[in-house]
UniProtKB/TrEMBL annotation:
One of its GO terms (molecular function) is hydrolase activity. PANTHER family: CYCLIC NUCLEOTIDE PHOSPHODIESTERASE CBUA0032-RELATED, PHOSPHOHYDROLASE. It comes from Acinetobacter populi. Residues 18-204 form the Calcineurin-like phosphoesterase domain. InterPro entries: Calcineurin-like_PHP, CNP_phosphodiesterase-III, Metallo-depent_PP-like. It comes from the Bacteria. Belongs to the cyclic nucleotide phosphodiesterase class-III family. Keywords: Hydrolase, Iron, Metal-binding. It holds the Pfam family Metallophos. This is 3',5'-cyclic-AMP phosphodiesterase.
Amino acid sequence: MPLHLDIIPQPSHDEHPIRLLQLSDPHLLENKQDFFAGIQPFKSLQMVIEHSKRHLPFDCILSTGDIAQQPSQQTYLDYLEEVAVFNLPHYWIRGNHDDNGNFPDQSPSEEPEIILIGQWCLIMLNSQKQGCVHGEISPMQLEYLAQALHKYHNYFTVIALHHNTFPVGCKWLDQHSLQNQQAFLDCIQDQEQVKMVLSGHVHQEFSHRHRHIDFLSCPSTCIQFKPQSEEFCLDSQPPGYRIIELYANGNYSTKILRLSENIGEIDYKLCEY
């Protein structure tokens, strides 16, 4: 099976790490001025991007799904135009709210996006299951993933998908995680080159180590979910993003950064969306 491959030139600053910016869950609306859960998602995304510019340079941007709350062609156009201000390679995947024919595919939905940069391989998986909130990686994608891990076994590897693999401790949310977790783990957990799995979906910072692999979630650029909540509950934490630094020897570091405050007044009475 062929693989959809992109190669980013080795950064000229090769004595420094490769630097990735992870954005997730903007939940943008068709009208950039409209409000969702008490805030303007587009303005919040703009402020997050502006904040992240303080930490340039980056080598590429990874967006881990739920770009749209109202998945129209205009919504995605607005998003892509906003992120284009970086003038950097940019890769994105579907979230459960992106279930729409207007999603700007970079590769066929069953075919992972493979990005080689320096000594690292980045693999973007589609965990969206049609019509469902929870996620699933299709058997075909798992075959592609196994093929990629074999072909690029000499590269240290980062995998990104929308849905979280492990429970985060929110009872209402954990039922909507990746449903075929074990099949995914069977594919990657014995692959020593796999260093981390990045996800979105849970609108909060979370980390879990399974064997040698770190599973890391990212805050939303929009609203946040309250950690350890039994029922749906929004959090007062402001929007954020993740920065990852990848070193040529396979080591890595990462941190979450946030705005100093929310862009708007969060509607804490909201019980679902």
